[in-house]
Amino acid sequence: SAAEKGGYDYFMLKEIAEQPKAVADTLLGRIDGSGSLTLDEVRIPTRVLREIDKVVIVACGTAFHAAMIAKYAIEHWTRVPCEVELASEFRYRDPILDAQTLVIAISQSGETMDTLMALRHAREQGSKVLAICNTNGSTIPRESDAVLYTHAGPEVAVASTKAFLTQLVACYLVALYLGQVRGTKWGDEIRAVIRDLSSIAGAVEQVLGTMEPVRELARTLAAKDTVLFLGRHVGYPVALEGALKLKELAYMHAEGFAAGELKHGPIALIEEDLPVVVVVPSPRGRSVLHDKIVSNIQEIRARGARTIVIAEEGDEAVVPYADHLIRIPATPTLLQPLVATVPLQVFACELATARGNEVDQPRNLAKSVTVE
Ligand code: AGP
């Protein structure tokens, strides 16, 4: 009913708007007064967390994109090798697992069969499993050794939005916690990121306030067949997520690529007026990547692409090559997905509406996939 949707036309719009609160709720009570993480709820002894020599994350769909981003954070902050695998592929290839492997299963619903089967397999091999889940008491957390709940609140729309942002927050918390417990050389950076996380809900709110041009742009693209998405570093999974949202909702051909792969094939797809969304890393931090992506934008635009550029405020280098410029607030490099994903959600939702599609219940899809 209209009341359930809180005055919005679709649950998806309501859930997009709820993201600042969802993010803040997922952080609530997990950072103490001194700026350290208190994740006692993760009932895996710190002794065990100190001894693990590998992290493996399994998930499907949007949760898999959160996992890909988690890998960058975990490896950077903890120096523990991290693998990420689609849950549906995992157990069928006899993965190498033992008691020193921490397996993380990410699932909004907690009922996804592929993810459940993957975690059962991991536990049979003696690995500890930590669930990151949004649904209290669901099967995946019940069958795991420990759970870190995301506090997004119920997500009704089939296309995942607020659950994704809170999965990212939970992944950052786990990565930072592992860093804290194990003591890495990134101690100062870890403390700084914990501070930055505390203000990230405000940044998400800020992005939400600037989405009208994104909606306008989406409406002008309603008759297109294809949209491509490019990103690099943590922007790569964001590009994949933008493409998945567009497939699910707008039923358009959408593909995400790692920008560095362009010259290895995908650049052949570029033709006159093809919309290409590019997620640009911060010019601060890993600025080499920034410069490389700017030249990618130049290359595709020279071949006729219509460039839709998502870039940090104050990033002037992209201006000459952006047909459409979407600004996001500055964040630490690894946290950028929390703000960069939001315009892509709004874009997909508006395109779906413009194409007359059912936003909350896309064709052929179910909210949770309880068969393998
Ligand atoms: C996201 O928009 C999708 N509907 C889908 O990819 C989803 O993320 C996937 O099925 C995993 O679901 P889960 O998080 O409930 O396990």
Helix-strand blueprint:
Blueprint: H1 11-17, H2 19-27, H3 46-51, E1 54-59, H4 61-78, E2 82-86, H5 87-90, E3 101-107, H6 113-124, E4 128-133, H7 139-142, E5 146-149, H8 162-182, H9 187-198, H10 200-208, H11 212-220, E6 226-231, H12 235-250, E7 253-258, E8 275-279, H13 287-302, E9 306-312, E10 324-328, H14 337-354
Parallel strand pairs: 1-2, 1-3, 3-4, 4-5, 6-7, 6-8, 8-9, 9-10
Bound molecules: 2-deoxy-2-amino glucitol-6-phosphate.
Give a brief outline of the structure.
Helix content is 43%, strand content 15%. It has 14 helices and 10 strands.
Please provide a written account of the structure:
This is Glutamine--fructose-6-phosphate aminotransferase [isomerizing]. It comes from Streptomyces lomondensis. It catalyses: D-fructose 6-phosphate + L-glutamine = D-glucosamine 6-phosphate + L-glutamate. Homodimer. The active site is at 367 (for fru-6p isomerization activity). The chain has 14 helices and ten strands. The chain has 372 residues and is of the alpha/beta class. The strands form two sheets. It has a five-stranded parallel β-sheet with strand order 2-1-3-4-5, with helices on both faces. Strands 7-6-8-9-10 form a five-stranded parallel β-sheet, sandwiched between helices. Helix 2 (19-27) runs parallel beside helix 8 (162-182). It is globular, with a radius of gyration of 20 Å. The relative contact order is 0.14. It binds 2-deoxy-2-amino glucitol-6-phosphate. 2-deoxy-2-amino glucitol-6-phosphate is lined by residues 60-63, 107-109, 112, 115, 158-160, 248, 368-369.
